[in-house]
């Protein structure tokens, strides 16, 4: 009798273990389903927000391929019924758009290179060198970030006008060869390096310039990438200063050229939108390919370790 009772208890125990295992599997399946549901809802929300944010850009792309006859109607045409490339071709024939694009690349490229060089050198001085008034000078440099560009644009214009630099490439480039934001970015990055690194290099007979080129530059690629992306996009989208200091098509930039397209014809909205779509391609491409460097460079100097 006792053996039968023990066998029965064992069977009940085995069944209980099976039930627990089955219950555990059900709970795991429910947790997995819940997690997948949350992930799906997040993805759906992100897609919806992305569509709302990108809607103006997508509609501009649609207008660029749309004939003027389809745009100026009582109907709301979101997609072109007869897509055409005529707007893109006319944008190059109505104004020297290709020349404007080349000018913008020259200006943005030179400004980017100039700011990387000047800001990295200044940041090196504020980070590793010791001289009187370093803290006060750095505070003055940072204080210039609070001065809006519109407050100095008239004085800068009068200065370059007296120097006879109007309507030239130097007048587009020289006033923007350095920036307080770039100095701050590089300095914060350099502050993460121990002073013993610089002292060891000096003991080995390394000059300051060689220390920057051979040691700091390879270690600050993320900061350089972030600075390059940020500076190029800002220079590419610059409008007010090139509008003031340039007067001929040989030196005008692409942002001014797009505004000239709207003056060609009162019905040239599709023409202007086609030009806008073309000129935003470089800045968007640089941001897409350099966004990781931009984020890494912006946050790399925030934590010491």
UniProtKB/TrEMBL annotation:
Keywords, sorted A to Z: Cell membrane, Membrane, Transmembrane, Transmembrane helix, Transport
A GO CC term attached to the entry: plasma membrane
Protein name: Carbohydrate ABC transporter membrane protein 2, CUT1 family (TC 3.A.1.1.-)
CDD domains referenced in this protein's UniProt entry, alphabetically: TM_PBP2
Signal peptide coordinates: none
Domain of life: Bacteria
Cited SUPFAM superfamilies: MetI-like
